[in-house]
Amino acid sequence: MRIVAGRHRGRSLVAPQGDATRPTSDRVRQALFDMLWHAPWSGRERVEGARVLDAFAGTGALGLEALSRGAARAVFIEQDRAALAALRTNIAALREADTTRVIPGDATKPPRADAPCSLILLDPPYGKDLVPRAVAALGAAGWIAPDALLVAEVAKGEALEVPGFEPVAERAHGAARLVFFRAQA
């Protein structure tokens, strides 16, 4: 697993052993950021200079990819100890300690935010309906900016509705499906 583009392009990321963590593949990350970069409902300014929240962070691949592509700051929420160790190793290897914050914990029970984020990346375990619960909790804790764009990776056949947000695009990639949301007006 590697960073796909940007200033850390080609740098390797570590992942914990076993199947408790399911890192987003390089191909899916490339597709996600290509859509963010080029879609009429997004644009490169959604990433460049953004404050990013990577919830259910695992190895941190999504948030670190955003930093590599010009995001200003990334906050990671993860509760698995092995994933947290891999995440911290990846942050150190990329020398991104000054632009990151790691919060050990459950994304459905987050602490109060110090500042809202404009790009929310959610990659929970498949099939557990965690995205709506996490979005509600993150919103209540002040993590989601009013104009935020949310991106969720779910299983290909998994139903997904997020109250208060409308889907603007989705793409399937193997067993994964990316769904992009923005706040309803």
UniProtKB/TrEMBL annotation:
Q: One GO molecular-function annotation for this sequence?
A: methyltransferase activity
Q: Which InterPro entries match?
A: RNA_MeTrfase_RsmD, SAM-dependent_MTases_sf
Q: Where is the composition biased (Basic residues)?
A: 1-11
Q: Which residues form the signal peptide?
A: none
Transferase found in the keyword field: yes
Q: Which Gene3D superfamilies match?
A: Vaccinia Virus protein VP39
Q: Cite the entry's keywords alphabetically.
A: Methyltransferase, Transferase
Q: Using the UniProt annotation, give all residue ranges assigned to the region (Disordered).
A: 1-24
Q: Which GO terms describe its biological process?
A: rRNA methylation
Name of the protein this chain belongs to? 16S rRNA (Guanine(966)-N(2))-methyltransferase RsmD
